[in-house]
Write a structure and sequence with these properties.
It is built from two helices and four strands; from the N terminus they run E-H-E-E-H-E. The protein is an alpha+beta fold. The protein has one domain: Alpha-Beta Plaits.
Length: 100
């Protein structure tokens, strides 16, 4: 699987009932756990003081990421996604091969 940096901004449409937004947010948390268990969601952050997310997601390619992963999020109709494909860096200390 490839890794992607995904910046997500969610905008709840004006006039949406608070109960509907709450229902979708609760369903979103469940779906995020499912995607993490399946290996698609590796990490997720929220910048301090902001209502957006930044995450590392995994999929075979960007098409799969959009259609079969991000597209299954309950809040997806209210989200915009900025997707950046990632590749390993030779100096990445996380893979254990970087020179000291």
């Amino acid at each position: 699987m490839r890794e992607f940096l995904v910046r997500i901004t969610t905008t709840v449409p004006e006039g949406t009932a608070p109960q509907e937004a709450d229902r979708r947010r609760a369903a979103e948390a469940v779906r995020a756990r499912e995607l993490a268990a399946a290996g698609h969601l590796a990490r997720l952050w929220r910048p301090v003081g902001e209502l957006r997310s930044i995450g590392v997601w995994r999929a075979a390619d960007e098409e799969e990421l959009r259609a079969k992963v991000l597209g299954t999020l309950p809040l997806a109709p209210w989200m915009t996604f900025e997707i950046t494909p990632l590749e390993p860096h030779p100096n990445d200390p996380g893979d254990g091969s970087a020179a000291p």
